[in-house]
Write a structure and sequence with these properties.
By secondary structure, this protein is mainly alpha-helical. The chain has one domain. Helices cover 53% and strands 4% of the residues. The protein has six helices and four strands, in the order ββββαααααα. Strands 1-2 form a two-stranded antiparallel sheet. A two-stranded antiparallel sheet has the order 3-4. Strand 1 and strand 2 form a beta hairpin. Helix 2 packs antiparallel against helix 3 and helix 3 packs across helix 5. The protein is elongated and about 50 Å long.
Length: 192
């Protein structure tokens, strides 16, 4: 068997040192790493990522599924005030660190939730049923803020915009699986 031109023993075992983790560009020493705000890029990944993942994935997955359940919107796009209130409270509770699920999961799902709100709003706009002078994203923001009692308040919009930006960053980092968020260290959380 051959991988990248290297012949492997027939039992598939790799020779000692065949697989190494290298984050160094060719020709650069570890001392010359680029720093981001005093933190090395490799510091963004937990040093004990495999152990941590094995220790926490079941609890994280169960709580992630619970959050998804609490924030699920009907497929027809018609949801009650109670459904919206439950979803917003669940998201805000995770973001505030009040749940077993790390806050970064709340930020990530906030983006998914706002995107899910936008889809039926855009369909309504396309059919002439929604305000044409506002974007679907603005209307989704307004609906989220209304549940919190912040509709029309600048500080509420600013706070939601800030949370959304953090959520977009986590979504980009965690792609393709939200469980990859478990790999990121506290340094990454501070940076995001």
């Amino acid at each position: 068997m051959s991988i990248c031109g290297e012949n492997l023993p027939s039992d598939g075992a790799l020779p000692s040192g065949a697989l190494t983790k290298s984050t160094q560009p060719i020709g650069r020493s570890p001392e010359s790493n680029q720093h981001i705000g005093g933190t090395k890029a490799q510091d963004f990944i937990r040093g004990d990522v495999i152990t941590y993942f094995l220790d926490t994935w079941e609890v994280t997955l169960a709580n992630w599924m619970l959050l998804l359940h609490k924030t699920a919107l009907p497929k027809d796009g018609i949801y009650s005030v109670q459904q919206m209130t439950t979803a917003v409270k669940a998201l805000e509770s995770v973001i505030a660190g009040e749940e077993l699920l790390p806050a970064k999961f709340g930020y990530l799902h906030l983006i998914n939730f706002l995107d899910a709100l936008e889809t039926p709003i855009q369909l309504q706009k396309d059919n002439g049923q929604e305000c044409k002078r506002k974007s679907a994203a603005t209307i989704a923001f307004d609906q989220y803020l209304a549940v919190q009692g912040h509709k029309g308040k600048k500080n509420g919009k600013d706070a939601l915009a800030y949370k959304s930006e953090i959520g977009r960053r986590w979504k980009e980092l965690a792609s393709p699986s939200s469980l990859l968020l478990l790999a990121f260290s506290d340094a990454a959380e501070d940076f995001v």
